[in-house]
Design brief:
alpha+beta, binds adenosine-5'-diphosphate, 5-stranded mixed β-sheet, binds magnesium ion, Ribosomal Protein S5, domain 2, DNA damage, about 325 residues, mismatched DNA binding, DNA repair, Heat Shock Protein 90, ATP binding
Length: about 325
């Protein structure tokens, strides 16, 4: 048998990348989350060839100090949590310190950042530092990821068509935008703008710029609160439905999550108003004490464990049921006002 030895840092990063970075959309998700965590007001996402040629994210957040740039690319290096206590009270979208090293181990990455003063650019390819030097930059971060998976041929082969990969990018950008109506977010693909939100904090307007104003006008606000949870957002009137559940977005403390139980609770709010096999459009924001959520279940953090999930489900169901019942009291023709 071979002797036991520690894996090299780059190999360890590539193994972690296998979990966190499944496809180009995963890169977009991780980098936009970093920009959100940095307190950005404006985030621009520029993608070429469904992200396989390049993904660039430009933000106006807090930036990274020049002498911390290399550290940001080390595994388990993060500015977001400190100790065990923090792990149970995560307020940021990131905390595992895995995204940058993972991405840099399987792509060519140039990151330019400034905290206000002079900026620095760091260039890393396949986990190898090429160089770091001063650069012109305004406050914020500009990261350019090229040739994703160039050294992981198995991953490249597993990717779907360009259209499918692009639609997954658009999908994740939409959901991140729903969770952050106060941030101006744009996405363009090969020079064509696909998404642009105004960043004025108006969720219905964000829904309008993503699903179309005519659809947003057929969605009504919901609200609910109990001792542990606050629920808010917009759901479609029963006349506006889709054949799939993918128009239901659930955001927990600003994080897009996938949760079957809570999706079911939304649908239950409609009672018999939905035909079998039809689903509403919904954007539901959930606010709760981070202590009630374990986000450390899966590397991508899209599955989370919520304490008192049944209670939360009932709160969502009754908030939707009540609002739809109220809607029935308004004479026809006035519902869209
Ligand atoms: P995590 O987000 O889990 O902390 P990452 O590998 O994604 O780990 O990022 C490592 C660190 O780099 C972050 O904790 C943060 O301090 C810094 N960083 C990354 N992206 C940005 C950004 N866009 N703006 C400011 N700081 C950033
Ligand atoms: Mg991160």
């Amino acid at each position: 048998m071979a002797v036991i030895h520690e894996l090299s840092a780059v190999l360890a990063d590539q193994i972690a990348a296998g979990e966190v970075i499944e496809r180009p959309a995963s890169v977009v998700k991780e980098l936009v989350e970093n920009a959100i965590d940095a307190g950005s007001h404006e985030i621009d996402i520029l993608v070429e060839d469904a992200g396989l040629k390049s993904i660039q994210i430009i933000d106006d957040g807090c930036g990274i100090e020049g002498d911390e740039l290399a550290l940001a690319f080390r595994r388990h290096a993060t500015s977001k949590i400190d100790d065990r206590k923090d792990l149970f009270r995560v307020h940021s979208l990131g905390f595992r310190g895995e995204a940058l090293p993972s991405i840099a181990s399987i792509a060519d990455v140039k990151l330019t950042s400034s905290t206000g003063g002079e900026g620095q650019t760091i260039h890393i390819t396949g986990g190898k530092l090429i160089d770091q030097k001063p650069a012109e930059a305004r406050r914020g971060t500009d990261i350019l990821v090229k040739d994703l998976f160039y050294n992981v041929p198995a991953r490249l082969k597993y990717l779907k068509s360009m259209n499918t990969e692009l639609s997954k990018i658009v999908d994740i950008v939409n959901r991140l935008a729903f969770g952050h109506p106060d941030i101006q977010i744009s996405l363009s693909h090969n020079g064509r703008e696909l998404v642009r939100t105004a960043g004025r904090g108006d969720l219905q307007q964000v829904i309008g710029s993503i699903y179309g104003m005519n659809k947003a006008a057929k969605m009504i606000p919901i609200e609910g609160k109990d001792a542990d949870f606050a629920v808010s957002g917009f759901v479609s009137l029963p006349e506006l439905t889709r054949a799939s559940r993918s128009y239901v977005s659930i955001l927990l403390n600003g994080r897009y999550i996938k949760n079957f139980q809570l999706t079911k609770a939304i649908i239950e709010g409609y009672g018999s108003k939905l035909m079998v096999g039809r689903y509403p459009l919904a954007v539901i924001n959930l606010d709760m004490d981070p202590l009630l959520v374990d986000v450390n279940v899966h590397p991508t953090k899209q599955e989370v464990r919520i304490s008192k999930e049944d209670q939360l489900g009932e709160l969502i169901t009754s908030a939707i049921r009540e609002q739809l019942a109220r809607q029935n009291l308004i004479p026809d023709g006035l519902t869209n006002l």
